C-alpha cells in the first residue's frame, strides 16, 4: 500500500508541475504579445520559472522512490 501512495503523490506533483509550467508560459506569451520589445527581458524569467517548476517534479520523483 505504501508504494501506491507514493506514486499517487508523484502523480499529484506531476499535475501541479504541469499546471505551473502552463501558467508560466501563458504569462510569458501574454507579456510578449502585449510588448514584443520586452521579449529579451521576459524570456530568461520564463525559462527560470520553467526550470523551478520542473525541479519540483524531479524532487517528487526522487522522494517517491526513496520513501
UniProtKB/TrEMBL annotation:
InterPro entries reported for this sequence: ATP_synth_F0_csu, ATP_synth_F0_csu_DDCD_BS, ATP_synth_F0_csu_sf, ATPase_proteolipid_c-like_dom, F/V-ATP_Csub_sf
Subcellular location(s) of the protein: Cell membrane; Membrane
GO CC annotations on file: plasma membrane; proton-transporting ATP synthase complex; proton-transporting two-sector ATPase complex, proton-transporting domain
Protein keywords: ATP synthesis, Cell membrane, CF(0), Hydrogen ion transport, Ion transport, Lipid-binding, Membrane, Transmembrane, Transmembrane helix, Transport
Record-annotated V-ATPase proteolipid subunit C-like domain positions: 8-67
Record Pfam families: ATP-synt_C (PF00137)
Site (Reversibly protonated during proton transport): 54
CDD domains (alphabetical): ATP-synt_Fo_c
Function: F(1)F(0) ATP synthase produces ATP from ADP in the presence of a proton or sodium gradient. F-type ATPases consist of two structural domains, F(1) containing the extramembraneous catalytic core and F(0) containing the membrane proton channel, linked together by a central stalk and a peripheral stalk. During catalysis, ATP synthesis in the catalytic domain of F(1) is coupled via a rotary mechanism of the central stalk subunits to proton translocation. Key component of the F(0) channel; it plays a direct role in translocation across the membrane. A homomeric c-ring of between 10-14 subunits forms the central stalk rotor element with the F(1) delta and epsilon subunits.
Cross-referenced HAMAP family: ATP_synth_c_bact
Name of the protein described by the UniProt record: ATP synthase subunit c
Organism: Nesterenkonia alkaliphila
Gene this protein is translated from: atpE
Amino acid at each position: 500500500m505504501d508504494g501506491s501512495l507514493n506514486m499517487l503523490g508523484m502523480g499529484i506533483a506531476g499535475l501541479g508541475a504541469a499546471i505551473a509550467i502552463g501558467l508560466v508560459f501563458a504569462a510569458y506569451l501574454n507579456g510578449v504579445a502585449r510588448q514584443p520589445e520586452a521579449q529579451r527581458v521576459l524570456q530568461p524569467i520564463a525559462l527560470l520559472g520553467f526550470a523551478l517548476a520542473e525541479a519540483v517534479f524531479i524532487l517528487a520523483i526522487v522522494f517517491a522512490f526513496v520513501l
